[in-house]
Amino acid sequence: MATDTNAPGEPHPWPEPVSMFDTSIDDPGDAAGRRLALLLGGFMSTQVVSALAQLGVPDELGQAGRPPAELAAALGLPVVPLTRLLRAATTFGVVRVNPDGTFSATPLSDRLRTGVPGSLRDSAIGFVLPPLWSALGNLADLVRTGTPADPQLMWDYARDHPDAAARFAGAMARQAATLAGCLRAAGYAPPPGQRIVDVGGSRGILLSYLLQAVPGARGVLFDRAEALAAAPAVLAAAGVEDRAEVVTGNFMTEVPDGDLHVLCHVLHDWDDEIALAIARNCYRASHPGGGLLVIEYLLPTPAEPSLSYLMDILMMTVEAGGERTREEFTHLLGRAGYSFGREVPVTSPGRQLPQRILEFRRV
Ligand SMILES: C[S@@+](CC[C@H](N)C(=O)[O-])C[C@H]1O[C@@H](n2cnc3c(N)ncnc32)[C@H](O)[C@@H]1O
Q: Is 9 within the bounds of a domain?
């Protein structure tokens, strides 16, 4: 493994970002042109990095340079296209090429290894799956026509491609780990509830945190079968497996009963009609005095540049869903029988995530 040796304030040990479109700019001092070139060149860097991750290349790289033929043999890949991919990755600093033509790891390729703390391998694969990539490729058409995307496309794909479903769940687990880390740092305690049901809870990273935060509580992790495959290991690693059950089902039909239902990054997948049906199923399954915890990328009011806008585009193109303002959630969930309690920012020292926690109570 390569080590990231740069101290705070020192230059990074990888090259300045480059873009294929740098050669389309006449004046190298043209800051706006260069900035736009970098934005436009993103399609290349995304696919080069994702391909490395998909092919497992970072797991084979080390500090010592390896000849491309040796890497190709280890990975079971044809040597010429692999060499071309590795060379392309050197322009982004994701792989290092040595004077003898061997390739070695960099701090960036190390973050694409399997199972290292904070690995972005699943993110590099799971958020670049064919349905996501091709849906984003249709963005202009979607805006031109206003035709909603197929809301089941992604989930049908996950059902039919277990490996892809695992990478997608892994990508969401990485996000959930960052979220849970912030909640832990802030000491966030959920509203009272002895039976917490995480609806669409995937691998259970968030439920694990909530059960740790409420020592006597029991939890239900509810999701589609393919999303739950790695959940028992996650719950066991958090030491909450004795207090959590894993339940497979369809939240459009019904959800398990509980005192506190959790919908984290779930409602944004759906339009208002389906989101309302899911919320109503939570309400029907909630105990008297029950609550609902919604965690989403909130649209800022007043409007200001926000990562929530990018997530909103992803939801619009891939799933016919979208992000909402707090007022929109209050109105929507009010129709399901919930009243708004409070909004909690997701922060840790020096950081604020675009997501917000919205706490609701049964009316
Ligand atoms: C965007 S992910 C959010 C996962 C998790 N809550 C998180 O924040 O990381 C949405 C989740 O909803 C689940 N899901 C989609 N359709 C579902 C359905 N009909 N019934 C139950 N779960 C479903 C997916 O499998 C996925 O785990």
A: no
